[in-house]
Amino acid sequence: MPVDIGLNDDARNTSADALRVLLAETYALYSKTHGYHWNVTGPRFNSLHTMFETQYNELWLALDEIAERIRALGHFAPASASEMVEPATIKPDNGIPDADTMVENLVKGHEAVSRAAKAGLKIAEDNGDAVTADLMTQRAAISEKTAWMLRANL
């Protein structure tokens, strides 16, 4: 059945593409954050372990929201981890970094998510896609606040 939500095919396609990029960055950051939660060591173990858990849980919920918006636009969301992370700029680590490097890497990851959300916001606004624009704004705000909180730990 065709999707008739007040957006033409081109607008729905480009909004969905922007959401796929945001999904990729979010999934890559989720994976990194969860791995850091499991493997952080040192004198700040408890505080970082707990903070990383809060962050990966928030990212997991965001993934569902982003994927469901892709579906609402009439497209399929990526269904495998490899398909999901393909467009991501956030890359996995080789080995386990120390706690400070973990925090630095997560700051960079949240900044990448914010950049992807802001690029997607521009596309959504150009498309007249207020719902996707709202989602992009929310994701940028959360990532920027989280990056600030992580920076405060360095």
TrEMBL record:
Taxonomic superkingdom: Bacteria
SUPFAM superfamilies noted in UniProt: Ferritin-like
PROSITE patterns found in the cross-reference section: DPS_1 (PS00818), DPS_2 (PS00819)
GO molecular function, one term: oxidoreductase activity, acting on metal ions
Domain Ferritin/DPS: 17-153
Protein family per UniProt: Belongs to the Dps family.
Name assigned to this protein: Ferritin/DPS domain-containing protein
Species per Swiss-Prot/TrEMBL record: Hyphomonas atlantica
